Task: inverse folding
């Protein structure tokens, strides 16, 4: 697959709410909620994402579920099935133990150096993969990076994602989370593209290393000032977009004129010089100057000790350790439906999947009640 055109290529699966027992809430946001559920077909645990936008089902299907239906990669969250119930779109995802944000909060500081290298390499693999399919994520942050029991990291929540070569839909500043948003997104440059994800990766790298957000403005203008102070001045294009789209000239004139430190380790609070250089290649004010993920994967930070050659082999073993999860996923996956029209037709006209029966359902409910708090947990962040 060379690219994904979400306006014409829409793939999903048909299932039914009757096939799942909802156990407990895992998270919620402006667009819906995430629930821990159990399959009546197999007894396996999954994450159910329920969207609270009955008038947006087609849009949700195209923007979030369509890309995930074709993005098959070890470092991208796996979508099993999607269906309509009560007029709302529901999607079933594989269930992972925790998010990168959970791990950092639990630790209370930055991660160990080898863990940073392993996680960052997997993040770049995931972003490089979706970029190769012309998809921007637009909301990369620790909450949307999930980690399996064996340490496999997966990029999740494509609610803000969109095709990078699709000009019919205007881009929006509100697509992502401000603390991880690139300057061109913040000033509403209509031509921003894949480099916005690279900026977010850079912010995530600092967070993984220090345990603190690198850029944390509470309000928009404060955040812009922080970027200028800590990273560098806006480009000429960004200045013009700021004046055109965001604030008046008086407020722009109040922005600081400073020169951030050139000592990269001091700048980012990172003691590893190669890691500090890697972050610097991501956090360039001009998106043209940011390295592509394919190049970042060959940065000296990864090549110096041949990590880029040895770790992929280790990652294969880590994925194999999660093989039971993959078998569960395959066990509960449904055949693909290639168009939105077929999706609607199947939901509206076709017989429902067979009900497992009252006895089987009650047996599973009893097991679910007993084990509700014992299964693995997930943080599947919603697009806020």
Result:
């Amino acid at each position: 697959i060379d690219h994904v055109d979400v306006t014409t290529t829409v793939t999903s699966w048909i299932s039914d709410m009757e096939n799942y027992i909802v156990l407990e809430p895992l998270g919620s946001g402006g667009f819906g909620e995430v629930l821990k559920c159990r399959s009546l077909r197999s007894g396996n645990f999954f994450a159910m994402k329920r969207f609270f936008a009955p008038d947006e089902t087609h849009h949700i299907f195209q923007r979030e579920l369509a890309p995930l239906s074709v993005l098959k990669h070890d470092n991208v969250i796996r979508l099993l099935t999607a269906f309509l119930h009560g007029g709302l779109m529901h999607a079933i995802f594989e269930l992972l133990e925790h998010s990168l944000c959970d791990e950092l909060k639990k630790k209370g500081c930055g991660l160990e150096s080898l863990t940073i290298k392993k996680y960052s390499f997997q993040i770049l693999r995931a972003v490089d993969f979706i970029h190769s399919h012309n998809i921007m994520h637009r909301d990369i942050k620790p909450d949307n990076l999930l980690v399996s029991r064996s340490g496999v990291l997966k990029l999740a929540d494509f609610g803000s994602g969109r095709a990078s070569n699709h000009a019919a839909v205007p881009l929006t500043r509100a697509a992502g989370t401000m603390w991880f948003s690139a300057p061109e997104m913040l000033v509403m440059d209509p031509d921003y593209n894949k480099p916005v994800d690279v900026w977010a990766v850079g912010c995530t790298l600092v967070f993984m290393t220090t345990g603190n957000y690198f850029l944390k403005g509470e309000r928009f203008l404060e955040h812009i000032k922080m970027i200028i102070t800590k990273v560098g001045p806006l480009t000429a294009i960004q200045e013009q977009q700021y004046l055109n789209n965001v604030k008046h000239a008086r407020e722009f004139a109040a922005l600081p004129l400073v020169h951030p430190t050139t000592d990269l380790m001091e700048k980012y609070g990172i003691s590893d010089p190669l890691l500090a250089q890697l972050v610097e290649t991501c956090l360039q004010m001009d998106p043209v100057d940011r390295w592509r993920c394919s190049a970042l994967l060959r940065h000296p930070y990864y090549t110096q000790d041949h990590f880029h050659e040895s770790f992929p082999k280790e990652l294969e073993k880590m994925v194999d350790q999660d093989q039971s999860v993959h078998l569960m996923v395959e066990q509960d996956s449904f055949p693909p439906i290639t168009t939105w029209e077929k999706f609607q037709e199947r939901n509206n006209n076709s017989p429902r999947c067979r009900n497992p029966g009252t006895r089987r359902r009650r047996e599973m409910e009893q097991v679910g009640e007993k084990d509700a708090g014992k299964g693995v947990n997930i943080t599947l962040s919603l697009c806020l």
User: Anything to note?
Assistant: The radius of gyration is 22 Å. Residues 1-14, 350-360, 367-384 have pLDDT under 50 and may be disordered. DSSP finds 16 helices and twelve strands in the chain. The longest strand covers residues 20-29.
